[in-house]
Amino acid sequence: MTNYDDALDKYKNGNEGYVFFPSLLLVFNQITSSIGLDGQGVRQILLAVNFVPVLQFKSVNKDNILCNSKRKEIWRVVKEHPGMSYTELKGASSHTEGDFRYHLEMLVRYRYLEKYQINGFIGYFNAGGSVTDSEKGMIIALKSKTGKEIYSILLKNKEISRKELSEHLDITGPTVTWHMKRLISLGIVRATYSGNSVCYCLSDVRKPLPEM
User: Fold this and answer.
1) Which pTM value belongs to this model?
2) Which residues make beta-bridge pairs with 191?
3) CB 86 within 8 A of CB 122
4) Contact in structure between 188 and 137 (CB atoms under 8 Å)
5) Which of 7, 58, 100, 164 has an alpha carbon 20 to 30 Å from 68's alpha carbon atom?
6) Within 10 A of 102 (CB to CB), how many other CB atoms are there?
7) Beta-strand (E) ranges in the chain?
8) What pLDDT does 4 receive?
């Protein structure tokens, strides 16, 4: 992490709504680090010298975190579309990269959102909901239309070959393989091989798609 990032982290930890100047932050970072001050100590110094109007500090806590319109927008998008990845969420946002990352991290820190990770895949969910970890994995895996169609077909068939899936969905064999690798890595589907052919089946108890 660069010194600039250190400075931003120190002043963003528990405070927001400020106008910041990189060179000023770096100076403060160097001074406060050399004398062992934490963010709270820095805040007291700024209060003492009447610096608050410049940095416009505003305390953030669990009760007021959704008062910020940018955070509320991110939280609402996740509520309506659970399981979205960081890239998908960022694509649905009009915020700059830095703003978006900061507000998303604040929502996770104060447990309004949960960052759920499974086998290298990451999705965001409303924290404290009734969705189980197994269902979260399914939601992450079945966000695409093709993924949902494959799962629905497997619910109705004990076993189906790659060729049959390709014909049923009117997609190429390699496309079927790509989707199946994702479902297999998440533990939703099993593959069995016989010579050059491969068949797929659900690896768990058959159940309907979770609400999305």
Assistant:
1) 0.61
2) 200
3) yes
4) yes
5) 7
6) 18
7) 15-16, 58-59, 113-118, 121-126, 160-161, 189-194, 197-202
8) 38
Among 85, 127, 122, 121, CA closest to 106: 127
Residue written as token pair 């410049």 = 54
As given in the structure block, the two tokens for residue 82 are 């659970």
Reference 204, options 137, 117, 107; nearest CA is: 137
Amino acid in position 104: L
Is residue 125 within 8 Å of residue 113, measured between CB atoms? yes
- CA distances (Å), 9 to each of 1, 4, 12, 25, 106, in order? 10, 9, 5, 10, 12
Nearest by Cα to 25 from 5, 50, 44, 48:
5
The DSSP 8-state label assigned to residue 65 in this structure reads: G
**CA dist 76 to 80, 90, 126, 139, Å?**
6, 13, 9, 17
Closest CA to 164 of 188, 199, 192, 191: 199
For 4-59, the DSSP string reads HHHHHHHHHTTEES----HHHHHHHHHHHHHTT--HHHHHHHHHHTT-HHHH--EE
Mean pLDDT in consecutive groups of 10 residues from the start of the chain, 212 residues: 42 46 54 61 57 54 89 94 92 90 94 89 88 84 84 89 92 90 86 88 65 50
